[in-house]
Amino acid sequence: MMIVICGVIIGYMSTSDRRIAGRLLDDGATATLKVNRAVLDRFFAVQETALQAAALDLKRNLSVAANAISNRYGSLFPQGTRLSVREAGSPAVPVSPALTGIRFVRDAAAEDTMLELAYGFERGKELVSLYPLRIVDGLLGQMKWEGRQQPFLLEGRDKVISISGWKRPVSQAGPASPLPSLSDLGDHPLRAIWQENADAHTMGGNVTGRVFPSSGGMYTAILADITDGPAAGWTLGTLYQAKDFGAALDQSRIVLYAAVIALCIGAFLSFLLGRLLGRPLTRLAEASARVRGLDFDGIAQLPPSRLTELDNVNAAFNGTVSALNAFARYVPRQLVKRLIEQGMTDPRQIETREMTVVFTDIAGFTTMASRLSAEETAGFLTGYFELVSDAISAEDGTIDKYIGDGVMAFWGAPVDQPNHRELAVAFVRKLAERLDEEADKRIRVRVGIHTGQVVVGNIGSISRVNYTVIGDVVNVAARLQEYGKSVDPDARLIALASEETMAGVERGEGENLVGRISLRGREQETSVFRIV
């Protein structure tokens, strides 16, 4: 009877294991292609935004010399990008600013193939950006998150745009065919992807792919045809050695052999132990998931267990939750959650980004605090901080720190926010609405906003770091906040923004240029706008 039971269990485990392994392969391949597509979409979105910003300025100032366009707007684009303006193929292009074309062209001057994006910004005129293919190679580097992967991009099914790790040979391609064909890849395995062979076949499951022999081995390629967006007509894929891609299926076979032996010996004990451990471990897993999301309020205390080891784990976990719950009151919980979601917990995670920084301060707080008790001061500040923090959170901002009676916040990290300028300006408008509804009319706020390149990341010592931003942008935002008292000292809310912030932001009523101001500590004058 035991042998029959074990045989049924082994058969079920084998079938389930292979089905789960196949599903994991499908899910993993789908996730890989989605992540890689997101990298590609993000690149085109950023470039389209940069083209839109440059085109907007060009439209206002059509006198910019042709040879000065790259120098004027080159900082908005990847290094090596060349910009120019040309007459559009159709004089009706565009009715509204938009991407009007994407293609690969042969650059005779550089003797290299370039990716061309055309952006129509004036009737009959296009702003053209030319990108070296090494920029596309860099995108594939972002798509490769483990060594066994080799992402690639094809135009259609035959023309090679880029392959991760592939050294592009000096091409003899001409203007009519600027990209090499698969047949030009030499001994690269991908050249055989579409060749008919007895061992080649299309993959099953939910992912488009192909298994094929090449260069003395078997390879697997997962593919996604891009049917929309600027890259429509391209093929995005990732190449694996077949043994690496199908390792889960091979392991399932090994597990089957081991299960035949192990299950025959301990089937009954395993069943009892599983019943004994299953429910407590499920509770522990659910509670751990809540800890990862910093949802301490929804975690119940884990009960004691008759198993000593499990009881010790539950007790340690309960103590950890209590300690973390207390500690979480002293750190920006929203920021920590975002850093965990983005996988940016490395203390050396530092980068340079264009971001928008905001400083707020209470007008006349020093005088007010001198007339209040300590408890009244704390209560007043708590109400003010909640007011500002709610407005920042409503527009997806990140609070950096509280500085006395001031708040420093930023947009553009840790989550990539291409519209960080618009979000920061929207915060000011949201804050104005909240102040109108606020019963305590003693709260008068000054706000300074500036946009530019900053260093952002985990900054500090090995034992303690802050996720913060540093750079001249921070100082300018603080100076703009200070300058607000010179513009309108009696305002309930005055918000000043720099020209860099207002560039490309749709201005509302009352958002006017204050003038070009020499801010404290800066020799260069700054164009200052009043938002509220």
Automatic annotation (TrEMBL):
Coiled coil stretches, renumbered: none
Bilayer-spanning residue ranges: 254-274
Keyword presence, DNA damage: no
Domain annotation Guanylate cyclase: ranges: 356-481
One Pfam short name: Guanylate_cyc
Classification via PROSITE patterns: GUANYLATE_CYCLASE_2, HAMP
Keyword Phosphoprotein: no
Swiss-Prot/TrEMBL keywords: Membrane, Transmembrane, Transmembrane helix
Domain HAMP: 275-329
PANTHER family to which the protein is assigned, alphabetical: ADENYLATE CYCLASE, TERMINAL-DIFFERENTIATION SPECIFIC, ADENYLATE CYCLASE, TERMINAL-DIFFERENTIATION SPECIFIC-RELATED
Protein name: Adenylate/guanylate cyclase domain-containing protein
Organism: Roseibium litorale
Taxonomy of the source species: Bacteria, Pseudomonadati, Pseudomonadota, Alphaproteobacteria, Hyphomicrobiales
